[in-house]
Amino acid sequence: MAHWLVVGSNGQLGHDLMAVLPTTGHTCVGLDLPDIDITDPESVAAALADVAPDVVVNAAAYTAVDAAEADEATALRVNGDGPAVLAAAVAAVPGMRLVQVSTDYVFDGSAAQPYGEDDPINPASAYGRTKAAGELAVLELLPDRGYVVRTAWLYGVNGANFVKTMLRLAGSRDTLEVVDDQRGQPTWSRDLAEQIEVLIAADAPAGIYHGTSGGETTWFGFTRAIFAGAGLDPERVHPTTTDKFPRPAPRPAFSVLGHDKWAEVGLAPLRDWDEALAEALPLIIAAEQTNPH
After folding, report:
1. pLDDT tens-digit profile of 171-208?
2. What is the value of pTM for the model shown?
3. Is residue 193 part of a domain?
4. How far is CA 221 from CA 51, 216, 257, in A?
5. What angle (nearest 5°) sits at the alpha carbon of residue 88, between those of residues 80 and 1?
6. Is 127 a catalytic residue?
7. CA–CA distance from 40 to each of 37, 63, 126, 288 (Å)?
8. Residues 165, 219 contacting (CB under 8 angstroms)
9. Is residue 126 included in any domain, yes or no?
10. What does residue 167 show for φ and ψ, rounded to 5 degrees?
């Protein structure tokens, strides 16, 4: 079993990693701002010296996709420079490994079939460019001990996310219009946390992995499934198109990621998105009833 440091432990994925790791026999320490600043080499060095982890997971990120269009420098500092600082610090400690959580936004969304782990990236937004910079830094600085795990459409019990937003809107609107021309893979953050543990525990080769659920749907299809699972009428959800909701950052029309790498290293990929949603939804609803916004 390993000793883990979860950076960004207050976030959605960080929260689930901190819950999952002890159940699989590991020890873990979670750090977030202000206790660690991944853009500050001294802060990172001090944290690594204090925690002395075997594995570091970077779940910290600048995730304001639209705001990044107007402030790419800040996004780059967190999403690009931060992982580079972490990777350099990890590289200085023999045997220590780093997992960098990345995104489907490193692709431009113009494909018609799932993106492979080794397909060329071509980010179309500031957020995507900054996350791509973080990927490259980790892969270059830690070719044998660096893991990039790309995820997408993430939701969970902790933090703000699409599922919670749709459930709240269901309580205040008779009908909802949701885009039906963006395809992707809704992914439960707990499933991703468990998959990251499996990846490292199996001592899988370093490199790029796609941490998204199996299957695919649109935001419209996802919302109808949320309504149905919550005992609401899915006919209240109506399809619309992306151009009806103009945003500063372009959204990928096709964010489906392929999972061939898992089979190559002898591991099962994540389960299908609808199966995960069926298990996650009651937990999210219960949490929202306990802590209403």
Report:
1. 999 999 999 999 999 999 999 999 999 999 999 999 99
2. 0.97
3. yes
4. 43, 9, 18
5. 105
6. yes
7. 6, 19, 22, 36
8. no
9. yes
10. -65, -40
